[in-house]
Amino acid sequence: MTTTSQLLPISQIAQHYQIHDDYLIPHGKYVAKIDLSIIKANQNNEQGKLVLVTAITPTPLGEGKTVNTIGLSEGLNYIGKKAIACIRQPSLGPVFGVKGGAAGGGQAEVLPMETLNLHLTGDIHAITAAHDLASAAIDSRLYHEERLGDEFTAKTGLARLNFDKERIIWKRVIDHNDRALRHVTVGVGGGVNGIERRDGFEITAASELMAILALANDLQDMRKRIGNIILAYNTDGNVITAEDLEVAGAMTVLLKEAINPNLMQTIENTPVLIHAGPFANIAHGNSSVLADRIALPLADYVITEAGFGSDMGMEKFFNIKYRQSGIAPSCVVLVATVRSLKSNSGKFNIKPGQPIPKEITESNVELLEIGAANLAWHIQNAKSYGMPVIVAINRFPHDSEEELAFLQQYALAHGAFACELSEVFIKGGKGAEKLAQHVVKACEMESKVILPYQDDDKLIVKIEKLSQKYGASKVNLAEQALKDIQNIENLHLDHLPLCVAKTPMSISADPALKNVPTNFEIDISHLAISAGAGFIRVYAGNIMTMPGLGTNPAYRQIDIDENGNIVGLS
Amino acid sequence: MTTTSQLLPISQIAQHYQIHDDYLIPHGKYVAKIDLSIIKANQNNEQGKLVLVTAITPTPLGEGKTVNTIGLSEGLNYIGKKAIACIRQPSLGPVFGVKGGAAGGGQAEVLPMETLNLHLTGDIHAITAAHDLASAAIDSRLYHEERLGDEFTAKTGLARLNFDKERIIWKRVIDHNDRALRHVTVGVGGGVNGIERRDGFEITAASELMAILALANDLQDMRKRIGNIILAYNTDGNVITAEDLEVAGAMTVLLKEAINPNLMQTIENTPVLIHAGPFANIAHGNSSVLADRIALPLADYVITEAGFGSDMGMEKFFNIKYRQSGIAPSCVVLVATVRSLKSNSGKFNIKPGQPIPKEITESNVELLEIGAANLAWHIQNAKSYGMPVIVAINRFPHDSEEELAFLQQYALAHGAFACELSEVFIKGGKGAEKLAQHVVKACEMESKVILPYQDDDKLIVKIEKLSQKYGASKVNLAEQALKDIQNIENLHLDHLPLCVAKTPMSISADPALKNVPTNFEIDISHLAISAGAGFIRVYAGNIMTMPGLGTNPAYRQIDIDENGNIVGLS
Question: InterPro entries under this entry (chains A, B) (predicted)?
Fold first, then answer.
């Protein structure tokens, strides 16, 4: 159960940050949406500095990236700056599945965490509804065109769309971990119950609409992007968009409230904007452009978090989000832990929920040094985008002074602008005092984003340039990938940036290759178009877009107690 | 686009009705949830009178029941009484499908209608999420038990549930008209993608959770009801409940906000509580007990609407909602129109969207007299429950004075307490001035609910008694129905009231039998148990629980304009 005793009414938080009541759309006492019109109102104000939080290669031990994003924003407030954190909204799937919530924790938590972890203000539900409206529209049109045959146009006044039943690429979505929905047959039995065909469900966070919500510049831009979504191909091989199906307007209407970012607060009353939650593999893995645009004129520092390691969410921040928004960070904060680096050494095969080997919990500088190569890689990777990099060591009780001292020295020796301990889980903003001071200094530096490829590079060149950044020696394109490239070029969509869908568990595309893989090849199986979001998905490995529930799912523990309070949610 | 210029901030509406800010959970400026704790706070206050609005047998012409429910509440305020309307929340399916919204209209409309017709505060989405969590849990458990075989218990510490794959009765839901989802195969391909089996989706309003939300007495009662839901049978033929699957707590947590009713206002600033939207065939078709309980101590009159005609929603109000809540209405208002009664004559085969025959639009007392028999039946039906009945003639421009005079005389001659014209669409509350005065008088009468059957009547007796009320000469039970009755008796659930799932388009169970059918038989195909909601569904005909989209779906017209306002929604 949340401790709300420290919380201030959200209107008071807003007032502190010059968000006038006129822009606040309250949802209960502690949450409000912020109307987008505030962006125009503040457009001539001085803009704060954007700080991008990323991490080393993730491990099952957890690095604490969200905790540190929230804690750093508290830390900046602690040293007298105005800061706002911008994070993604968690999906219900994991909440009821494996891990519980995504609100941070300890003294660096967003509250009330039940609100954050459950429906919040319904944005994800709105995406599910808008997405599945298009699915219903597709199957309905398919049915009526097939039912009425040559008379379709005469009877309806509509032109035939002639869906190619085998090339309907718009799947359905639902916000649950539901493995049985990965592959389904719809329209079973035919007749008035539709046309039988193979389909599947993905979790809502995987919807292209989620990426669009995160990338849209305003409502009209969202409308246009939704119209551009490619739903399917027709029997002549041409695309059928949401505009063609005349469903883009209704989809936008369903997202009209969802486009307004959600304001909450941390346990220390630092404002947090929560908005959108795209994955960092099949999408770009960052919270919304609109949240950043609202926050920047209101704060000295806006702290935002990118999904997975710097090879994933951070890369996509620069190549997708920054390309589209033009909003550059002033520095990158790279979160690491002693234990995770030891785990990244590749000497262990750690699985979630299993006991952690002693070598990892006991002081072991030699082991740490091996895994620290992963840290060095991520420092260099972030620096290659033109950013000063501050390493935040998320301190755990077991970490020895010797290990911590080694790591600080190591990070500086490998190019970090600064390296500092973070103790925000225990101490809140005070635990990030020094880290915040380094961030302030880094943001005073001149920095300019360096992008690894140009919009007009050939697709294959873009793929090769990114693969080189991972350290790959060679890229192998499957036949399907070559066909897809040809198709994308024919559609004149090859100017779009890439969104590499690969494992986050390795810098390479092979989860078995730990630490800093070298001399490996990358296999691209196929490409896909997110024409509304504005990127090309490049598949280097199988990406799971619909998780399953395990044998001991989290929902078993979640209930209300005799006072009606929620228990078992964390 | 909604005219919000007449609207007051919802906190002001609340204040007028002694709803203290402490109980208000604002959702934007014009909507608030009301915390259930207000019920306890007001439990010793004087209770207002409950007025139940029903209608003649519905026709494709529309009778205006919602408009008159809202208009009557305005009318009572107009004559100086305090009134609150309680209505159901519309589903997204029809909004994007055939008919647009369900907010009333003209001067008797709930505003902002976009908010009402779209997500409102997310209650329906919460039901979808809670319902489908149970579905994911079922398929996951099925998968893990089959995958681990005899080792399941040893490996998980859980007892096997042994789902009978062919008797999983908990379908999935989605809040769209999506015919292709009526019959689906899930788990296609098997392996890690689940166990392949036949399943189907219903529209969310058909979820048992929707009926539970509408019938629950408080949060703990909802928790208990959810635990009682029968999800499936096991291979030994015993029930598997949501409690058995350990998912009832999490489902309740997902509905923790949805249980609070939603406060909005009419165009004349009369408060309206919108809460739950169960169908009136496979469920009981009335808004929530909790909304009534909140409203009754705050107003002199609470106007609530029951689905379809008096044989459907009104019957279920008494036999299901009243039996469970103990809250009785003081009178029944029966809405009719001249045109609908002519249509009910059975002389025409009118379909939605097709031209209306001249005989119906031109003055024709003879024709009206034939169809008025339907009105007489519904008057007598409502009276048989012990209620004074006021007929509200929803006046249309074409209605002749002669017709209206005939109808008023006819209604009184056939047992109505009063019969009055209603012009609320054009005139708002003023258009229901006299109607409201009759309602006040009727509510001063002594009335006592008469129920047609007793809880401990045998199921077959209950079925026969209700069938006699429809006018049936005989009930035919299919073999499956007999088996189902046996099963329900074995489960000791035969004390529950019936929920007859039949067509609303006839007083009989055959939509072709118009006006007042006599000498007909009723065929019961099967029965089903809503153990959480607390009723037994008795199927007399095929009931569509997943609508489809037509060739000209409403979504085609819905969009945002250049100013970002919603267009095409009505």
Answer: Formate_THF_ligase, Formate_THF_ligase_CS, P-loop_NTPase
B551 touches chain A (CB under 8 A): yes
Q: Tokens 């602690």 correspond to what residue?
A: A78
Do residues A145 and A164 make contact, with C-beta atoms less than 8 angstroms apart?
no
Tell me, yes or no, if B20 comes closer than 8 A to chain A by beta carbon.
no
Residue B101: what pLDDT? 64
Q: Quick one: pLDDT band at residue B2, thresholds 50, 70, 90?
A: very low
pLDDT above 90: percentage of residues in chain B: 92
Structure-token pair, residue B521? 């038989």
Please list the residues that pair with A331 across neighbouring strands.
A51
Inter-chain Cβ pairs, chain A and chain B, closer than 8 A: 243
Interface membership of A226 toward B (CB under 8 Å): no
Sign of CA dihedral A142, A148, A154, A156: negative
Distance (Å, rounded) from C-alpha B53 to C-alpha B76? 14
State the burial class of residue A343 (Cβ atoms within 10 Å of its Cβ: 0-12, 13-18, 19+): buried
Domain A123-254 has CATH 3.40.50.300: no
Cβ-proximal residues to B63 (8 Å cutoff; 6+ apart), any chain: B55, B56, B335, B336, B337, B340, B394
Rounded distance between C-alpha atoms, residue B241 and residue B13, angstroms? 42
**Residue A405 tokens, joined:** 């001292």
What residue spans of B1-64 are helical by DSSP H? 10-16, 37-41
Rounded to the nearest angstrom, the minimum Cα separation between A516 and chain B is 31
E strands, B432-497, are 472-477
The complex scores an ipTM of 0.96
Containing B83, the helix (H) or strand (E) segment is strand B83-87
Contacts of residue B204 in chain A, CB cutoff 8 Å?
none
Alpha-carbon span A21 to A19, nearest angstrom: 7
The whole-chain average pLDDT of chain B stands at 96
What is B123-252's CATH topology?
Domain 2, N(10)-formyltetrahydrofolate synthetase (3.30.1510)
Q: Can you list the alpha helix ranges (DSSP code H) found in B79-200?
A: 92-96, 113-117, 123-148, 152-156
CB B39 within 8 A of CB A40: no
Of B140, B178, B248, the CB nearest to A548: B140
* pLDDT (0 to 100) of residue B61: 84
CA torsion sign for A154, A157, A159, A161 is negative
Q: Determine if residue A428 is labeled as part of a ligand binding site.
A: no
CATH code 3.10.410.10 for B460-540: yes
Cis omega (within 30 of 0) on the bond before B297? no
Tell me how far apart the alpha carbons of residues A63 and A47 are, in angstroms, rounded to a whole number.
30
Q: How far apart are the first and last CA of chain B?
A: 9
pLDDT tens digits, one per residue of A344-385: 999 988 887 788 888 899 999 999 999 999 999 999 999 999
